[in-house]
Amino acid sequence: MVTPPHEKLVARLEQAGVLTRYWREAFTGIERHRFLPDRIITPDGEVVDRDTDPRRWLASAYDDLPIVTQVDEGNEDGSAPPISSASKPSVVADMLRRLDASPGMRVLEVGTGTGYNAALLSHRLGEEDVVTIEVDADLAERARERLLGVGLCTLVITGDGTQGWPARAPFDRVISTVAVRRVPYHWVAQTRPGGRILTPWGTALHNGVLADLHVGPHGTAHGRFTGDVAFMWVRDQRVTGRTLKAHVPPKVRESTLTRTRLHPHEPLGDFGASFAIGLHMPTVLKRIEFEQDRGRRFTVHLVDPGTGSWASWHVDHGSRRSGYQVRQHGPRSLFTELESAYAWWRREGRPEHTRFGLTVSAERQSVWLDHESRVIGSMP
Q1: What pLDDT score does 323 carry?
Q2: How buried is residue 306: exposed, middle or buried, by Cβ count under 10 Å (0-12/13-18/19+)?
Q3: Does residue 302 contact residue 247 with C-beta atoms inside 8 Å?
Q4: Sequence spans of domains, the chain
Q5: How far, CA to CA in Å, does 116 sit from each of 4, 28, 226?
Q6: Choosing a second label site near 60 at 20 to 30 A (CA), which of 12, 114, 226, 372?
Q7: Active-site residue 84, yes or no?
Q8: pLDDT band at 77 (very low <50, low <70, confident <90, very high)
Q9: Catalytic one among 87, 90, 309, 312?
């Protein structure tokens, strides 16, 4: 007897330890391929068409890999950056495990996407207790159709998920499948005391953690960062390649020139260091431009669009002894700030991202180390 591909996926997720017994029935009952478009893009950029290569399409549907399902209008260089995707099944399972939702709870999902995650939530909790919001009208309509196709009448709202959905509040859980730099306070206000908010979170410099927040009785939420995942940004916070390229400094602009022995791999290649530096420089973007001998010569650009400040950090493998060239321009000395933040992280004993936390109130959002009294700064 041939085992259906979705059952093989369930077995792999169980073996990996991310699928708990509480969610096994939902993952067994909801087939992922029913929520994917006929044309998908694999992580290596391959376009797989269901009509021309159904076997490859089905295999891709049950790989433990993210699948791009929607791309932007494209950049000047012809590239089309992804703006919506179906997350890795292992990431989906792990986030649902962390959410700790059980029947009888009401859940708000932000970022419907394909509808697969909403289907899993509805299967376990009941469709009447799940509300999902999608900003893209076409994606929302297709998700409704796919949910109905598996017998679920889950409420799919077309709208801005950062506003929540007060008509069904209060919620016991809020789960976002899009990354934010600032947790919308509407989510806190619409979650009952004792409830939880789980969302991908990041800074302009570092996208790749989960904020696991507990809502208190006085209109605040706090919790630590966890996970190691990167999600698409919420639409009004994402930076397109075209926007970032516009801020990369022209070579002829006035700047100060210095040298450093610090290699970018040290502060930016280490997950914990990069995350901590991003907390100190939350509005600063980075872009890496490689030359033809990829890896031996490249430039790291740091940009703060709000002030017009930039720094270019040129790495030439042959310049290790004399140091790497750094140019800075604008009211902020971005490379100097990065050096300072990296030095702070090292003095603190190289803390992992799980030692940092976030407190959200109606007035401010503060990040801290180890406990709320050790505030590092506020998020813009």
Answers
A1: 87
A2: exposed
A3: no
A4: 5-236, 240-347
A5: 18, 13, 23
A6: 226
A7: no
A8: very low
A9: 87
